[in-house]
Amino acid sequence: MNHKMKKGLSVHTLGTGGGPIVSSSRAGTSTAIRVDDATYVIDAGMGSIRNYRRHASWGELRGIFLTHHHSDHIYDLGSYLLTGWQVPGESFSRPVHVYGPGQPPRTPALDAEHARLVDARTAGRSMSGTKDIVDSLLDTVFASDVVIRMADEGRSDPGEWVIGHDIEIPAEAQSDPVLARHPVMEPFEIYKDELVRVTAILVDHRLCFPAFGFRFDTPYGSVVVSGDTAYSENCIRLAQGADILLHEVIDLDAILDTFPDSGTREGIAVHLRESHTPFDEVGKVAQAAGVGRLVLHHIVPNVPGAADTGKMETFARKDFSGPVTVAEDNDVFTVPPSPESSADVEGWAAVPERLTAEVQA
């Protein structure tokens, strides 16, 4: 498929389902942002890699940004990292950098008392940082594949093509896995090249720490991905004036209706209630941030037919005065360049043109 495009900014919803559900209707959460002929992927949900190839080539991929390490956001990560490794005609054209949470200094908890319970429950287990996850995929999970292909096909070390990075949270934020998982803070830069500047901020995903939202500023406009989060003032701060805000959304009653009674049902219910943004609050986030368009993704529930997406859209429109779309897999949203914009990063306008949106199946 020919992915050549005119210069500009576009957003491609590779997967719009939320949660570790094997769904026949939506791939797991993943978004591609294309700037000219470069592509940046946010999260790598189940099945999203197949949709990636409908929108971009491996030679265009520059970076992968992980909001957090819940399984539904990293299921396809290994596939993204190995599939473009020196395959003739399907290769990375430059090293691909993966940015995501570092290993927290202790296991996250709600407070000091809860931390003691958590430490007892998880004794002997520890969390990983993004760099360790990437290295483990190359050196352990796919080690046999890597060695055989290097020996048999003459490929170079995949570590030359795939590089993991732990996002370092600024010390002045005074964040902590127990005492301050999402303190009030300012967005901070994590990546920059000639086409994009990527900033991050901590959001509120209950015990997940760190959990990030990301903003991509380009010569043509700006896109924010909320990551998984409850209503977050930090997310509002990150999204100020953005052309597009992709925000997660949940219908708590609908997802709970899909769960049979079990010993873990209540624990999951508490997590969902305190970790995600309900459909009747998400429009408030977009309105407070003054964004150009609200796109709802990471739809929960992700069981086919269980989510009333029309209701989600209707409630979001009550609080947000701009356009609202409940995304489906493989939708495309474009932000046209303003006449004065250029490819010079230093010349980016502070307030980009309002977008016009094109949605394609």
What do these coordinates show?
With 361 residues, the chain is an alpha/beta fold. Helix content is 25%, strand content 22%. The protein has ten helices and 14 strands. Strands 6-5-4-3-2-1-14 form a seven-stranded mixed beta sheet. Helix 9 packs parallel to helix 10 (309-319). The longest helix is centred in the middle third of the chain and has 12 residues, at 130-141. The chain is globular, with a radius of gyration of 20 Å. Mean pLDDT is 91; it is low at 338-361.
Layout of helices and strands:
Elements: E1 9-15, E2 30-35, E3 38-42, H1 48-55, E4 61-65, H2 77-83, E5 96-101, H3 112-121, H4 130-141, H5 143-153, E6 162-167, E7 188-192, E8 197-202, E9 212-218, E10 221-225, H6 233-238, E11 244-250, H7 252-257, H8 265-275, H9 282-289, E12 293-300, H10 309-319, E13 324-326, E14 332-335
Parallel strand pairs: 3-4, 4-5, 5-6, 10-11, 11-12, 12-13
Antiparallel strand pairs: 1-2, 1-14, 2-3, 7-8, 8-9, 9-10
With strands numbered from the N-terminus, the spatial order across the biggest sheet is: 6-5-4-3-2-1-14
**How many strands in all?**
14
Let me know the largest β-sheet: 7 strands, mixed
Helix fraction? Answer: 10-25%
Strand composition percent: 15-25%
User: What's the alpha carbon Rg, rounded to whole Å?
Assistant: 20 Å
Low-confidence parts: 338-361
Head-to-tail CA distance between termini: 16 Å
| Overall average pLDDT | 91
Label the overall shape.
globular
User: Could you give the order of the helices and strands?
Assistant: EEEHEHEHHHEEEEEHEHHHEHEE
Tally the helices: what do you get? 10
How is the quaternary structure best described? single chain
Sheet/helix structural class: alpha/beta
